[in-house]
Design brief:
Layout (H helix, E strand, L loop, with lengths): L1 H13 E7 L4 E8 L5 E6 L3 E6 L8 E6 L4 E2 L7 E8 L5 E9 L7 H13 L2 H36 L1
Parallel strand pairs: 2-6
Antiparallel strand pairs: 1-4, 2-3, 3-8, 5-7, 7-8
Length: 161
């Protein structure tokens, strides 16, 4: 029983819970497409707390952001999950993780949406081919119409003479 008590005492004396990341702490920004703002701030959805040796330095751990899509498409809602944040030790072991959330809302910009959809539509090869064919048909029609009018005028002049 005394050895178990000594082990517990050693564990409580040498280990403790440390907060490695606090919720609502700004972690960076991510770009937003088709939004009224260019970017949205990111924060951790919850605290990341781990049981660590007392002599470990929380600043020595790496914070890794795993973003679902970069840039994110508007609209973005506050608290929307945009990925995951992980705290990683020097040897690559994940100590803890939390959801990566959007700090504020970014509304959809209607003008950017229309331009984006128009760009997608006009980017199709078949549409470009169709436009080229229509232009060729119009040019051929205009050339033939001009030649026909010229011939018709010539015929009318000959009839008058």
């Amino acid at each position: 029983f005394t050895e178990s008590a000594e082990l517990y005492k050693w564990a409580f004396d040498n280990f403790g819970y440390k907060t490695l990341l606090t919720a609502n702490e700004p972690l960076g920004e991510i770009g937003v497409t088709m939004g009224e703002a260019e970017s949205v701030a990111l924060y951790a959805g919850s605290d990341v707390i781990a049981l660590l040796p007392n002599d470990s330095d929380p600043a020595s751990f790496e914070t890794r952001l795993e973003i679902s899509e970069d840039p994110v498409a508007a609209p973005v809602l506050p608290g929307q999950i945009l990925g995951k944040v992980s705290i990683v030790s020097g040897d690559g072991a994940v100590i803890g993780s939390a959801k990566l959330l959007a700090a504020n809302a970014v509304a959809l910009d209607g003008g950017d949406l229309v331009l984006n959809k128009l760009g997608e539509f006009l980017g199709h090869t078949w549409l470009l081919l169709l436009v080229v064919v229509i232009v060729i048909i119009v040019v051929v029609y205009v050339v033939l119409a001009v030649r026909y009018r010229a011939k018709r005028k010539a015929q009318l002049r000959q009839k008058k003479q």
